[in-house]
Every structure is written in C-alpha cells, then in structure tokens.
Amino acid sequence: MLDLKFIRENPEAVRRAIQVKGVALDLDELLQLDREVVALRQRVEALQTERNANAKLVPRAAPDERPALIQKGKDLGKELGALEPELRAAEERLRGLLLRVPNLPHPSVPVGQDDSENVELRREGQLPQFAFAPLDHVELLERQGWSDPERVARVSGSRSYLLRGDAVLLEMAVLMFAMDFLRGRGLEPLSTTALVRPETLVGSGHFPGGEDQVYKVEGDDLMLAGTAEVPINSLYAGEQLSHEQLPLAFAGLSAAFRSEAGSAGRDVRGLIRVHEFRKVEQYVLCEASEEEGLKWFDRLLDNAEALLRALELPYRVVQNCTGDMGAGKVLMYDLETWVPSEEKYRETHSCSYLGDWQARRTGLRYRDEHGKLVYAHTLNNTGIATPRILVPLLENHQQADGTIRVPAALRPYLGGREVLGVPVREVAAV
To answer: Is beta strand 188-191 parallel, antiparallel or unpaired with respect to 248-257?
Structure first.
C-alpha cells in the first residue's frame, strides 16, 4: 500500500507503475473516490460539530426556544445517521482500491510484460560435463526406489510427492544445512505455522489478486500460506517498535501450500511444481531507508548465492522486469539453477525489496532516532525450498552408476556419507 498523500501528489508516477506492472486499476476512479471521501468526511465532521454546539444551547435556552433546538438536534442526528454509513462504505471502497495500488519500481528495473523479458545479470559455476547419458530427477528417484508417485497420487491427488529412504534424509539435510547456514549469518531461526488468517495475506500483499492460489480451511477463518513470509510479516502487525529493535532478520522454516491454479499442463513431471512443500524463508524488517533496504537486499541475495555455491550448483542471477516482479516490489532478482535434463536454468530463489508497502498494510511502525513514528521496510528471499531444489541437486550430482554424490557441505548432516544410493545401472561412455 502506498501513502495516499503520496498518490495525490504524484499521480503520474503511480500511473506509470500501474501501467508497467500490468495492474488492473483505474487511478482516476481512485482519486475521484478519494475526493468524495474527503468531502463526506468534512460534511460529517461539520454536522457533528454543529450538533454538539446545538446540544450545549438546549440547557441554557429559554423554554419557548428549546423545542426548536431539540428538533434541530434530531434533524442533525438523522442527517448524520444517513451520512455516516455512506462514509464508511466509501472509505471501505477506497481502501479496496488502495490495496491494489502497486509500489513504484526501482529505476534500475527493466520494463517488460512477463518473465520472457527478465534480464540475465551473470552466471556462476561450471555446468556439469557428463561422460554418460544423464537421467532426469524422476528417473533417478525411481531407479533408487526413493519415490512412490502412484501411491501418493491415490492418497493426495496429482502434484503431490512422497520421498523414501535416502531421499528423505537428503531433503532434511538440505533444510538443516540452510537453517544452520543462515543462523551463522545472523538470521534468527523461526519455525512458523502455515495456517494464517485472511488478513495476513492482505498484509503480505498476496490479497487481493492471489486468492485462487490459496487453500482455504472449510469451517474456519483460516488459510494455508505459500511461504513463511506471510505469517512472519504479520508477527508485529499493529505494533510500534523502537529504533533499537531493528533490524529484525529471520530464517523461517515452514510447510508451504499453493494451489497452482492456472498452471495446468506446466511442469507436471516430478518435483518442480507440487502443491505442498517445505521452505526456509529469509525475512527482514529494517529501518525506513532505501539505502538500508538495498544493503539488506544485497546481503540476502548473497546468502542465497552462498547456499547454492555450497551445494555446488551452477546458477544464474536474473533481474525481474516490471511485469514479473509483483505489485508490491521495488526490486526483485531471481536465482535460477541449472537443470541438466532440460538444459536450462529454473527459478529456485527470489529476492525482493518492498519498501514500506507491506508495513503500511500491517500497520507496523517504529520510532526513529528522532522519536517520529514511521513505517518499517521489509524484504524477503528464499533460503531454500524443497523438493524443488532436489531437482538440480540430484541431476547435477548424479554419477554414471545412478548414485548421487553428496556435496561436502551436506555430508555432516548425512553421517559423513559421500555418496547416496546403490549402483543401479552400467552405462557406456558417450
């Protein structure tokens, strides 16, 4: 959410943000409604003032004057009774429009309609060179007996996953390594619930607009979040923090759920796009300074890159264009990790800076060094998400006999093992 005063004073900048981010919003409608709300509020306040003044006259009025004053009070009350609900309804409509106003993108963000117009910034790591015909992650899992897609589909439907044996230990090792790594870099570990109230999804900016991506718990006013960003963003909702409490930096571990509505036919094979997964999310609340926010952006991005380097995975850094960065984001980079079977990079991490856009939605403020109440800035970044990260991890580290080489960083979490699985094939060199 943007400051309404800022919108009034900078309509063209906001109008451009609406255009380049492809948001369905009529700014002229919002500004007109804002003027109507201001006029209604002024009329209501004037009537309240007049009614209060009239009420004070009644006790001091002459007996023959009181009936007229009493009747006037009734008339003013009747008019207020009609206007106050009208004002509340107009304010609610205005808030609904304000929730759809996008944040202004950073000047460095390329203008584009979708992910096809994102800009590659750099590539890191060496692509694997196999002396054999590599398998994709589905074949690797099946040959080792590490997955059971048919049985889990009977239990949970399509786009579910079930790991067995060493694949389970590998998934747990990745998550524990990520938590330990981020804790070592100063982030406080959190274990968060995926069950959230609808207002938390409004606070994070997923609502309005992303309702079809969220599972609802029937009979309860609860939903299943798709990232720990959602509950962490509302932990301090409505609070007033001190300047000394900032920054707050978390590594949040949670289950995550996404309906993947609108993605029919996309990435249906294996672990790429499943409904339920596990995720370690980096989340930061910092002081209201773009300079400070961009420092944290670089720091969170470096954390994610360091995790990928530790997992010995080649990746590239991509700057998201305006049409692929989400309404609330000032700046967004994706990390895409190499998937050998597809001979392409796939997104595994996203790093986002949102300014005070989320904090205004949750009412999260702090007192700056001068004692002034200001809205905090927020950032988020994927630490690690499983099982998606297992796709490049299995494929890049596969060996000719179908076993998986364990990156050195994960070996302490796997009892020192350097290889997972048993030989399941003999493959002639190619």
So the answer is: parallel
117 as an active site residue: the answer is no
pTM over 0.85: yes
Q: Which of 16, 273, 367, 417 is catalytic?
A: 273
- Domain covering 4-98 assigned CATH 1.20.1060.10 in the classification: no
Q: What count of residues does the chain have?
A: 430
- 191 a catalytic residue: no
Report pLDDT digits (tens) over 129-146: 999 999 999 999 999 999
159, 299, 361, 388: the active-site residue: 388
Superfamily of domain 115-420 in CATH is Bira Bifunctional Protein; Domain 2 (3.30.930.10)
Candidates 347, 367, 411, 417; catalytic one: 347
Residue 158: pLDDT band by 50, 70, 90 thresholds?
Answer: confident
Whether 273 sits among the annotated catalytic residues: the reply is: yes
- In the numeric block, the tokens 């607009």 are attached to 209
The helix/strand/coil state of 4 is: helix
pLDDT in tens, 296-347: 999 999 999 999 999 999 999 999 999 999 999 999 999 999 999 999 999 9
CATH 3.30.930.10 domain residues, the chain: 115-420
Look up 350 and say whether it is catalytic: yes
Catalytic site residue from 139, 159, 254, 258: 258
Specify whether 234 is catalytic: no
Write out the H or E segment, with its range, that includes residue 195: strand 195-196
